[in-house]
Automatic annotation (TrEMBL):
Main location group: cytoplasm
PROSITE patterns reported in the protein's UniProt record: PROTEIN_KINASE_DOM (PS50011)
Protein name (database record): Tribbles homolog 2
Record's keyword terms, sorted: Cytoplasm, Cytoskeleton, Protein kinase inhibitor
InterPro entries: Kinase-like_dom_sf, Prot_kinase_dom, Tribbles/Ser_Thr_kinase_40
Amino acid sequence: MFLETFKVSMSKFEPITLRGPLLIIIVININQITEIILGETKAYVFFERSYGDMHSFVRTCKKLREEEAARLFYQIASAVAHCHDGGLVLRDLKLRKFIFKDEERTRVKLESLEDAYILRGDDDSLSDKHGCPAYVSPEILNTNGSYSGKAADVWSLGVMLYTMLVGRYPFHDIEPSSLFSKIRRGQFNIPETLSPKAKCLIRSILRREPSERLTSQEILDHPWFSTDFSVSNSGYGAKEVSDQLVPDVNMEETLDPFFN
């Protein structure tokens, strides 16, 4: 059992009408809350037991073979697609937000909805610059106006998939300003060791223009997931020795210090 503590202020609570699919989201795709204890100033929230997070797993493995990456990433993308269908934008998406639910590391769930934004209707426009620098989309960095929250989530999914398969971020730099410049340009290299379908999926997600990206649901329909990896080229995703570029703490600071 996992415990998190939150400060509570009753004055900030307001009634919210949630769409029907959100009830399914909470059961299937999100780490379950087992108990909530309310104190005078804090809420103690108990979650189901977990067995580590995806970020630590990728660091330990260096990178994943395509068969394993496809199985885990499908669950990650499914969680995001269900949330989008239920009227939620998740915003601060990253590998660390997904946790394993079994010791064999075969089932993953979204850790919580801590940073999620509940949409009022079908408009998913957001204006705040929220997220983790390594996973942030170009339009969040480029605009002072609004952007599509769902498309920004999809960009973060692309960063996750690339990192799982390659063992490093598609855009990385020690200096945040240099990192943001690389993200704005949207240029990255894909190793030849990846299969054509994996390359296609990555390129279809990590597009600079938000309207050109696949949706979270379209990601699930990509033919990469239906690949018979038992007969495909065994070299795809091979774990050759490479420099570890996924840091221990993956630029966990938020974007706030860079834009305030």
